[in-house]
Amino acid sequence: MFVRRKIVKGKHYFQVVENNRVGGRVCQAVLVSLRQWPTLPAAKAAIPERLHELECLVAAKRQEQSQADSHRPWPKYTRSGQTNWRLVHQRASQDIRRRRHEITRLTSLLEDIQELEQEVTR
Question: Any idea where the domains of the chain sit in the sequence?
Answer without folding.
Answer: 2-121
